[in-house]
């Protein structure tokens, strides 16, 4: 079934079209009308319109202007124009803007019906084309994910890069398998994205990086994919048996492509990388070279825009790095301001490491010390560790040793979250015990509340809780719970259509008869009578 929109500033024309053309018989389940272009745009944006029948001459915005807007926004709607003027310029303008037909007023309903029927055929054709395009996109996307999965399993050792598997990978990329081909693997280490911490999770940025790598580095001669979110892996097909001069020329060209890739990413995406690439190798050596490149990447946590060949030796200085004082950091986490703690974590690394000596091992030590201090605090505060174990935090912990910037990003997230929890703990401690108990009761009113349960939540002895609650409120804890349940029941009786038994369960009474008894004792009447009398 289809939907049509009729647009005309003359109400009688709209009514005539609605009743004069058998839209329902033709196959339309909905006929919309609009008396101007503004109303038409609103409907086009909010409803699924298949065909629009539109007058050209309207006050304010004309039908041609509406057609330009439809074309600009690429809306999937077939348009038919109505006009009082048999002017060729009007007709040509409408057809240029994608109009299917041009009908003169006063309209003959048979002519409109014929045009609309042709419009339906055009809608069917466009739908088939869109479906085919969608299926093609899904096929390409699925093929890309399969290739990525296969390569990841090869690099992890789960699969062997056999001739049969390589031939399959070649076919997915539309390349002819070359049994004697050589390969070059490269690893691009994304040290950080943008100046904005949040940009690291931006899928659009990663897609742009992948797309540029395809165009600039791969050039339909290999495969490229993300390993995790910040390591881009490329495998290039190369020729074996090249002369030394040709091999050198091709390697210099590859370095030039890396530099071009760096510049474009830096200019448009504010991304910075190091790249590590292998010499020409056989397919059996791909996994081993990947591990070599990955180890070299982990050693570089400060320098950026490096282009390093896998068989080159990197000078990595090791020096004794002082571990942070755990007691000092724990004390700082407990009492320091967010900015003060963060500044200490940053300056500790920068004080004790230089560009030559800093490596991922040192950052890993500092990350571990941060987590130990955080765990010590939350254990003492007796709060959950869910925020330390969450996916986002675990991702930052994993990446913290990748660069100084990533370590500082991790530290900022950890300290901000910890200080938020710390503020909550201290605010609760300042509240009266009775207020904290009331909060808990309000949140669990539909449950079977016991004094022992509330005392356990507040880390108090049950007798002490009962004594303090009575002192602060003048009533016992059980009396307060009962009164709150009855108040909630009164509200539900007056504002919902729930049965009395359903309301009893909603406010924590397991027995309907006991609920009625307590309700009558507190209010002086049965629940049903209360509902009837108070609603009047």
Q: What do we call the CATH topology of the largest domain?
A: Alpha-Beta Plaits
What is the strand tally? 10
Give the DSSP E fraction (strand runs of 2 or more residues).
5-15%
Strands of the largest sheet, in order across it?
2-1-3-4-5
The separation of the N and C termini measures 49 Å
Rg over CA atoms: 36 Å
Q: What's the CATH first level of the largest domain?
A: Alpha Beta
The helix tally amounts to: 23
Shape from CA axes?
flat
Architecture per CATH nomenclature, i.e. the level-2 architecture of the largest domain: 2-Layer Sandwich
Relevant CATH superfamily of the largest domain: Nucleotide cyclase, GGDEF domain
Structural class: alpha/beta
Unreliable residue runs = 193-201
As for the number of domains, it is: 4
Oligomeric category: single chain
Major β-sheet profile: 5 strands, parallel
Mean pLDDT: 82
């Amino acid at each position: 079934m289809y939907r049509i929109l009729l647009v005309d500033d003359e109400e009688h024309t709209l009514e005539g079209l609605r009743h004069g053309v058998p839209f329902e018989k033709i196959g339309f389940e909905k006929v919309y009308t609009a008396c101007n272009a503004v109303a038409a745009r609103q409907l086009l944006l909010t409803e699924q319109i298949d065909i629009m029948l539109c007058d050209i001459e309207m006050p304010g915005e004309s039908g041609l202007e509406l057609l330009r807007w439809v074309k600009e926004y690429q809306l999937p709607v077939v348009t038919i124009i109505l006009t009082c003027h048999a002017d060729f310029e009007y007709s040509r303008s409408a057809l240029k803007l994608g109009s299917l037909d041009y009908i003169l007023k006063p309209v003959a309903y048979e002519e409109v019906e014929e045009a609309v029927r042709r419009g339906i055929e055009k809608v069917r054709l466009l739908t088939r084309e869109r479906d085919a395009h969608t299926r093609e996109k899904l096929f390409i996307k699925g093929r890309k994910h399969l290739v990525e999965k296969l390569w990841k399993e090869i690099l992890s050792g789960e699969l062997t890069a056999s001739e049969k598997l390589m031939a399959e990978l070649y076919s997915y990329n539309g390349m002819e398998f070359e049994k004697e081909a050589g390969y070059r693997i490269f690893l691009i280490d994304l040290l950080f994205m943008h100046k904005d911490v949040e940009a690291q999770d931006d899928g659009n940025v990663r897609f742009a990086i992948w797309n540029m790598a395809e165009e600039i580095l791969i050039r339909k001669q290999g495969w490229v994919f993300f390993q995790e979110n910040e390591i881009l892996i490329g495998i290039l097909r190369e020729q074996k048996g090249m002369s030394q001069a040709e091999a050198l020329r091709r390697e210099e060209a590859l370095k030039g492509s890396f530099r071009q890739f760096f510049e474009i990413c830096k200019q448009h995406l504010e991304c910075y990388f190091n790249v590590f690439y292998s010499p020409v190798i056989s397919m059996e050596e791909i996994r081993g070279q990947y591990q070599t490149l990955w180890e070299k990447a982990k050693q570089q946590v400060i320098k950026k825009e490096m282009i390093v060949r896998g068989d080159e030796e990197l000078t990595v200085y090791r020096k004794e790095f002082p571990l942070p004082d755990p007691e000092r950091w724990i004390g700082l986490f407990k009492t320091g301001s967010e900015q003060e703690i963060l500044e200490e974590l940053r300056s500790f690394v920068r004080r004790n490491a230089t560009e030559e000596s800093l490596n991922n091992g040192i950052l890993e030590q500092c990350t571990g010390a941060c987590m130990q201090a955080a765990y010590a605090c939350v254990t003492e505060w007796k709060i959950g560790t869910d925020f330390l174990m969450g996916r986002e935090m675990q991702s930052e912990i994993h990446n913290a040793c990748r660069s100084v910037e990533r370590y500082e990003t991790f530290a900022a997230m950890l300290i901000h979250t910890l200080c938020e929890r710390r503020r909550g703990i201290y605010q609760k401690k300042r509240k009266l015990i009775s207020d904290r108990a009331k909060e808990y009761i309000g949140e669990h009113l539909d449950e079977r509340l016991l004094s022992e349960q509330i005392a356990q939540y507040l880390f108090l002895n049950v007798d002490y809780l009962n004594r303090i609650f009575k002192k602060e409120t003048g009533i016992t804890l059980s009396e307060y719970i009962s009164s709150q349940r009855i108040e909630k029941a009164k509200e539900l009786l007056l504002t919902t259509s729930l049965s009395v038994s359903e309301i009893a369960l909603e406010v924590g009474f397991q027995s309907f008869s006991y609920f009625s008894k307590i309700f009558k004792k507190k209010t002086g009447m049965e629940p049903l009578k209360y509902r009837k009398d108070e609603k009047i």
